[in-house]
Amino acid sequence: MSLKRWLYIPVILIVLGLLQWACSALLLDGPIRQGPYYYQILILAGINIILAVSLNLTNGVAGQFSIGHAGFFAVGAYVAACISVYGGPGIHSLLGFMPGDAQGAALLVLAMIGGVLAAALAGLVVGIPSLRLRGDYLAIVTLGFGEIIRVLILNIEAVGGARGFIGIPKLSNFFWVFGGVVAAILIIRNLTRSGYGRALLSIREDEIAAQAMGIPVTRYKVMAFVISAAFAGMAGALFGHFTMYLHTNSFTFVKSFEIIIMIALGGLGSLSGAVLGAIVITVLPELFREFSEYRMVIYSLALILIMIFRPQGLLGNASLLGRKRGGK
Fold it and tell me: Which domains are seen in the chain, by residue range?
C-alpha cells in the first residue's frame, strides 16, 4: 500500500469519530424523538452490511451457495462475548494504567480478534470437506453446520444455554461498527479486484475450465469461505457488544436466509448491491411496523415483486464503487 493510501486511515478514523459524536449528540442525548431507536436501526444496518458483504464473497463472487452464514455470526458473537465477560477483569487489571475508555476499546479489539479467529477456524473446518461439493449438497452441509452450532450453544451453560448470554459489556458503538463496515468493504473490494478475485470469478463462471487452466479450485474456494466467515465473526462480536445479550434465536437458519435475500436483492456478486440490500432489508420491516399485523405480509410482497420485475437485483450489474462487477 502506498503512503498516500495509508494517509486515508487517520482521515477515516477522524470522520468516524465525528460521526459517532454527532450520533450521540443528536440521537442518544439530543432532542430527536425516538433517537435511541433510530440509533439502534443504524447500528443493525451496519452489522447487516458486514454480513452481506462477507457472504457476497462466497455466494456472489465465488459462485458457491452457502446458507449457514448465521453459524459463523454466532461463533464470533459468543467467543467474543466469552473473552470480554470471563477475560475482561484480568485484561482491565493489566491495563489499569490506561483510561477507562481506552481499556474498553482494548478489550473490544481483543474480543473482536478472538471472534474473527474463531469464526475463521470454523470456516476452515467446514470449508475443507464441504467445498468439494457443489450446489444443493453444499447448501445442505452449510445449513447443517449452522444448526449444529446453534444446538451446541443451547447446551453450553457457560454461555447461558437456552437462557441466553447476559452480562456482556456495551463496548460497541457507531465508530466500531462502521469502522468494521469500511474495513470489510475495502478489503473485500481489493480482494475481488486482485488476481485472487479474478480466479474466483473464473471458478464461478466455469469451475471445470478454471481447473483445467491450473487454478487450485478447492483451495481458492476454501480461502473465500474462511475470509467470509472471519468477517461474519467480526459482525457477531460487534453485535454482542452492542445488544449486551445473546440468544440462539438471533442465529437461526432464518437469519442466514435473510442475509442471502440481502445480496440477492441488491444484485448477486455486486458489492454495492450487498450494501444496498442490507440497508433495505434492515429498514423496510421498520417502515411497515405501523401496519402491525400486515407488516410482514407487505414486506414479503415487496420482496416478491422486486424478484419478479427486477430478478438481477436493484443494482444489477452496476456498481457505486467505481467499477462494474465481474461476470457475464
Answer: 3-255 (1.10.3470)
